[in-house]
Design a protein that fits this description.
about 190 residues, mainly alpha, elongated, about 5% strand
Amino acid sequence: MKIYTGKGDRGKTSLFSGEKVDKSHERIEVYGDVDELNSVLGAVAAFLPSQERSLDGEIRDIQRELIRMSAWLATTPTSPSTAYLQPLTDEPRQTLEAAIDRMEEQLEPLRHFILPGGHPSAAMAHVARTVCRRAERRLAGMLRNAGAPPGSSDAPLQQALVFLNRLSDYLFVLARTCNRIHGKPESA
């Protein structure tokens, strides 16, 4: 199978559920942001020291969750194709919250705003956080524009919205943790 098809050369693409949409369609914009976030998370993991295998494993699990989320974003909520998708559950949010709590136990309490930066892994975690916030904003807008009330057929994407919100918190704490691991002070 070739990686290029030429089918998107006219500014259209196909959703997983088969519909053709503009490449600027809000679903494409959201899962483009999620894809970018996933790539930046790969860079964060690449900068982690080898002894931080648990953080690397957490990031890989987050990346897998983002792929599941992207599949839902690439599928219209009423499509029969949703039967083939892995469900989005509340468990990943709970896992993020436990990880945040665990990392915060090792950090000094925040007393002021901090500047993004420090060690490259921390700087990349801050970049990931801002990309995550953008994806969250776009998904919130898409759900609002669809007029989908909570519990509707867009319930998996409501779950994704909560996950992205918590993920941005995780990434902030991860950045601080990366600086702590590398002995880099936080700048105000």
